[in-house]
Amino acid sequence: MGWQQFIDESLLGTSQVSKAAIHGLDGKRYASSADFVVLPSEAQAIISAITKDPTPLYSKGVTLNNSKYMFIRVEPGRAINCCRGKEGAVAIKTNKCLLIGGYTEGMQAGSCWAVLEKLAEYFRANGY
Asked: Which terminus of the chain, N or C, has less C-beta within 10 A?
């Protein structure tokens, strides 16, 4: 399965994720949903917060697709959660990539998280 298929089928196809992106740990974009262009610098800031120090996100927030989100929490070495009004996003790090999924009003943050975690587990189990 190609990167775009993971976006379209495994994430957006669940109806629990409204927008998504997959990036390498160097920030390079592998695939994304339409109109959700997470810049490499935005992905790198998230990766740094997950793996090293989330402190900058407490004051600056999280930027995705040139939109600012309020930083909610970090699971060190694993994931972050952020929100903006009634929408939000989850980013989960695997061994070799970063999965980012967004949810909109009417969707549940926990459901979005669960879908991303399921795909992250699949990637980890396959060495990715």
From this structure: N
